[in-house]
What does this fold into?
Amino acid sequence: MSLVTTKDMFQKAYEGGYAIGAFNVNNMEIIQGITEAAMEEKAPLILQVSAGARKYAKHVYLMKLIEAAIEDAKNQGVDLPIAVHLDHGDDFAICKSCIDGGFTSVMIDGSKHSFADNIALTKQVVEYAHDKGVTVEGELGKLAGVEDDVNVSDADAQFTNPAEVEEFVEKTGVDSLAIAIGTSHGAYKFKPGQKPQLRFDILDKITQRLPGFPIVLHGASSVIPEFVQKVNRYGGKMPDAIGIPEEMLRQAAKSAVCKINIDSDLRLAMTASIREHFAEHPDHFDPRQYLTPARTAIKDMVKRKLVNVLGCSGKI
It folds into this structure.
């Protein structure tokens, strides 16, 4: 198994004006769809695993599936650079478990703590991770929304304060920084009638204070309307689901943002495909019959992101 860290990935992305897609994985079909898209587009890749995914699929299963994906790529003549990343680790214990279990990158999310406590916790993880050759992502600011074990109300959401980023990075030693500039977790990122908007002014101030340093955007699914419409057309109930416009994410990817997280769009692509399949083939009960087109839907959506949003197609 040949995994890579995000260090070289991010340096190339920063210099090249593109971002790496960090896609959340939960099962075989999702991993296959994502990695097949990356193989065809010759794009570097980050596969993210949340605490919820580890509970659902088990750490060992996910690592073996990713190992199989790397082997499959090599069999097809593609040396696919893949980093395996812990998404939203909330304490030292889960970060240590993932580091010891073969992850090449972890996120320690201390944003719920005070600034001082966030620094202390993040530094603890960094020291352990760097000793093992693993990179670390920290977070300043709080994103609103709900996704897996992350649940932050609108009232508790906070934009990242640019005045804090230099001290945080210097004292913790993190390799990348997740910031809050208007993205949000889940499929309901904005209220009805509210215009999606990213605070590029905050991003610019952070970039000025941290020149050359890789920035991360969480909660960056676009909640692609065609998937939402298909879910609703075939019996779903997702009124007012709205995400971040893809053109805004492309603008961010051209700047200091080197990693963009995508999860909800994966879920929507898969669910829309399965709902459509059951509606059109009510007699089907073999999981392969509906998971095959679902896997293709994920692959097609990821290719769209790699080419049109992230700009990382052809970068390996």
